[in-house]
C-alpha cells in the first residue's frame, strides 16, 4: 500500500486538530502528545462534523449532541445526549516522515 501526503506536521501543533478532505472522505487529524491520529470527521450519531467539536486531551466531543470519542482508538466513550446509539469512528493509518503527514491509500 502507498501513503499519500495530506498535511504538514507544523500545521497541527500538539493538542490541536485539523479537518482534511481526502477523496470522498472527511478526515480529522489530531495531534495528541506528539502523535498524529487520523479519524473520520463525522460523528457516528447524526453525521455532524467533529471538527466543530471540542478536543480535550485525547477525547473529542461532538458539538451536536455531546457524544465523545477517544481519538487514539476511535471508540465511542459516551453516547449522545439523546440516548441513541453512537458508533465507533473509522481510524485511518498515518505516518509522519520529514515533517509531512501521510495517509495510507
Main features:
single chain; 105 residues; Rieske Iron-sulfur Protein; four-stranded antiparallel beta sheet; 0% helix
Give the overall shape.
Answer: globular
CATH class: Mainly Beta
Number of continuous helical runs: 0
Annotation, overall tally of beta strands: 11
pLDDT < 50 runs, ≥5 residues = none
Largest sheet: 4 strands, antiparallel
Task: Write the H/E string, N to C.
Answer: EEEEEEEEEEE
Reading side by side through the largest sheet, how are the strands ordered? 2-3-4-9
Mean of all residue-level pLDDT scores: 92
Number of domains: 1
Structure description:
The chain is mostly beta strands and 105 residues long. It has one domain (3-104): Rieske Iron-sulfur Protein (3-layer Sandwich), CATH 2.102.10. The chain is built from no helices and 11 strands. The protein has strands spanning 3-8, 17-22, 25-32, 35-40, 54-56, 59-61, 68-70, 76-78, 91-92, 94-97, 100-104. Strands 2-3-4-9 form a 4-stranded antiparallel sheet, with no helix packed on it. It has a 4-stranded antiparallel sheet with strand order 5-6-7-8, with no helix packed on it. The chain has a 3-stranded antiparallel sheet with strand order 1-11-10, with no helix packed on it. The N and C termini lie close together (7 Å). 28% of the residues are buried.
Amino acid at each position: 500500500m502507498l501513503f499519500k501526503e495530506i498535511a504538514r506536521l507544523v500545521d497541527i501543533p500538539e493538542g490541536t486538530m485539523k479537518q482534511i478532505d481526502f477523496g470522498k472522505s472527511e478526515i480529522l487529524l489530531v495531534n495528541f502528545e506528539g502523535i498524529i491520529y487520523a479519524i473520520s470527521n463525522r460523528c457516528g450519531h447524526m453525521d455532524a462534523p467533529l471538527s466543530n467539536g471540542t478536543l480535550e486531551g485525547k477525547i473529542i466531543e461532538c458539538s451536536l449532541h455531546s457524544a465523545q470519542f477517544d481519538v487514539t482508538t476511535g471508540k465511542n466513550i459516551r453516547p449522545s445526549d439523546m440516548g441513541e446509539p453512537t458508533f465507533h469512528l473509522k481510524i485511518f493509518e498515518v505516518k509522519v516522515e520529514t515533517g509531512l503527514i501521510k495517509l495510507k491509500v
